[in-house]
Design brief:
By secondary structure, this protein is mainly α. 76% of the residues lie in helices and 0% in strands. The chain contains nine helices and no strands.
Length: 235
């Protein structure tokens, strides 16, 4: 089972990188189906490993781990903004002004569920299944975490096309998530951190779109969060 997972994992990473090198117009339906056919068994085997490791226990809904994930995710995202924007103001606005973010989440429950689902699937595949297997086969926790973080980064299309600063931030986030999972063994912790990042990025993307629309309206006032363009990328 371990060998089958690793073979599928390598095939999926290579397939994703090759697919991302094509333009959208060149992507065939077959390419998308092939990606899904590789992802599905990967997710299934990852769930098998998670069950064997006892990941699906009561700790999966542990309030302290969920609370820690929410706090850590918000703090990590604030640091990500500081790294990508080099602006304390941008990071401070996002970190301390929580009421608009909360309204955005309340008004978009389908988006919340979608990001939770994506985060759960990716964390099961990369952190719960791939990372321990790579660590075991390389006999090095550092190399194992770095390899899986690298694979996690390159399967996201934006990683290879982003400015270097954003790509470095993204890779750093992937490494940090790997370290946190190795250290805590908590799926819900890294899942929540992952989801918080994606939700906050979606929120900032909406702000940017709204500002762009407002800027085209005569007499519109620029909004306070205009410094938050070029946000970090989703995971």
């Amino acid at each position: 089972m371990s060998l089958a997972f690793l073979v599928l994992f390598v095939m999926y990473v290579v397939h994703a990188v090759m697919a991302h090198r094509r333009e959208d117009a060149e992507r065939s339906r077959f390419t998308k189906i092939a990606g899904l056919l590789l992802q599905t068994p990967l997710f299934g085997i990852a769930c098998y490993f998670a069950a064997r490791q006892g990941v699906f226990s009561r700790h999966l809904v542990s309030p302290p781990h969920i609370g820690a994930g929410l706090l850590a995710g918000h703090l990590i995202f604030g640091i990500s903004l500081l790294v990508t924007h080099r602006s304390c103001r941008a990071a401070a606005i996002q970190f301390f002004d929580l009421s608009p973010l909360w309204r955005f989440i309340v008004d978009n429950p389908p988006m919340l569920m979608r990001f939770l689902g994506v985060s759960a699937g990716e964390e099961l595949i990369y952190r719960v299944a791939a990372q321990p297997l790579v660590i075991e086969n390389t006999d090095s926790r550092i190399i194992g975490i770095l390899i899986v973080a690298g694979a996690f980064s390159v399967v996201h299309r934006h990683f290879l096309s982003n400015p270097p600063g954003q790509s470095i931030e993204f890779a750093g986030f992937a490494i940090l998530i790997g370290v946190l999972y190795y250290w805590t063994g908590s799926l819900i912790l890294v899942l929540v951190i992952h989801a918080v990042r994606n939700i906050e990025i979606a929120y900032l993307e909406q702000i940017v779109k709204t500002e762009e629309l407002d800027s085209d309206t005569p007499g519109a006032n620029p909004r306070e969060r205009s410094c938050l363009h070029n946000t970090p990328e989703r995971t």
